[in-house]
Amino acid sequence: MNKLQWEEKFNTGITVIDGQHQRIVKYINELHEATDQNIERKQVEKILVKLVEYTLTHFAFEESLLIDSGYQYLDEHKKSHQAFCKKLSDLEDKFKSGQNVAPLLTQLLSDWLFEHIVQEDHQYVDCVRNFFLEN
Ligand SMILES: [Fe+2]
């Protein structure tokens, strides 16, 4: 897999969200590099944990923002995050059982993340923007 490149179309225009998304992409690239260089499992695990934890933190942040702004599709959005969390925990289990899941995780994250950002995250932009303009 090639390094993930941030593209203009991924920007929501909400600075804090774009910053968090870019950080997730940075961690995915770190994972990709670690896999390429065939570094020891312990190191790969550290990056994996960092990536998973940060992704979860980002989801929680995003959901609280959507709650504050009264986003009408909050439940659907949360379900999408939950489905992804399930994929992550399945992959973590595989990793713990000794399999090398880094390439798979990288692919999953890149496919899912960009699709989620472009389709689902972009849908809440107006709602969140209006909330900030009013408050
Ligand atoms: Fe999201």
Describe this structure in words.
This protein is mainly alpha-helical and 135 residues long. It has a single domain, classed as Hemerythrin-like (Four Helix Bundle (Hemerythrin (Met), subunit A)), CATH 1.20.120. Helix content is 78%, strand content 0%. α1 runs antiparallel to α2, α1 packs antiparallel against α4 (102-123) and α3 runs antiparallel to α4. The radius of gyration is 16 Å and the shape is elongated.
Record keyword descriptors for this entry:
single chain; Four Helix Bundle (Hemerythrin (Met), subunit A); 135 residues; binds fe (ii) ion
Give the overall form: elongated
Largest sheet: none
Number of strands: 0
CATH superfamily: Hemerythrin-like
Task: Give a nutshell description of this structure.
The protein is mostly helical and 135 residues long.
Could you outline the blueprint of secondary structure elements for this entry?
Layout: H1 15-36, H2 41-68, H3 74-96, H4 102-123, H5 125-134
Helix pairs in contact: 1-2, 1-4, 2-3, 3-4
The structure holds fe (ii) ion.
